[in-house]
Amino acid sequence: MKSAKDNELKLNQTGTPMLVFMESYNNSIPATFPRASVKALKHFQAEHPALFKRSDEWSIDKHRKHLMDWLSAHSETE
């Protein structure tokens, strides 16, 4: 029997389309953090092609921390 923690880990590692990732990301970050937008995600993706070598899919596990740091540094320009 899988635990809730196992299910959460699987969800965090599963690749999703950009819009699904954006919704999940924006719903899970503190209110004071910069929000992701399609424009910002496309810009991030263009600046970090190594994170997308295998596919255009996004995952919380692979992209969330990188995006959080990047958005904090680029929020004034987005």
Task: Give a quick precis of the structure.
This protein has 78 residues and is an all-alpha fold. The protein has helices spanning 4-13, 18-28, 38-47, 60-74. 12% of the residues are buried.
Give the arrangement of secondary structure elements.
Blueprint: H1 4-13, H2 18-28, H3 38-47, H4 60-74
- Share of residues in strands: under 5%
Shape field: globular
Order of helices and strands: HHHH
Low-confidence stretches: none
Span of the ends, CA to CA: 44 Å
Rg over CA atoms? 13 Å
Helix segment tally? 4
Strand count, sense and barrel status of the largest sheet are: none
How helix-rich are the residues, as a percent range? 55-70%
| Arithmetic mean pLDDT | 85
Structural class assignment: mainly alpha
Kindly state the number of beta strands. Answer: 0
Structure write-up:
- By secondary structure, this protein is mainly α.
- 59% of the residues lie in helices and 0% in strands.
- The protein has four helices and no strands.
- The chain has helices spanning 4-13, 18-28, 38-47, 60-74.
- The relative contact order is 0.20.
Main attributes of the structure:
mainly alpha, single chain, 4 helices, globular, 78 residues
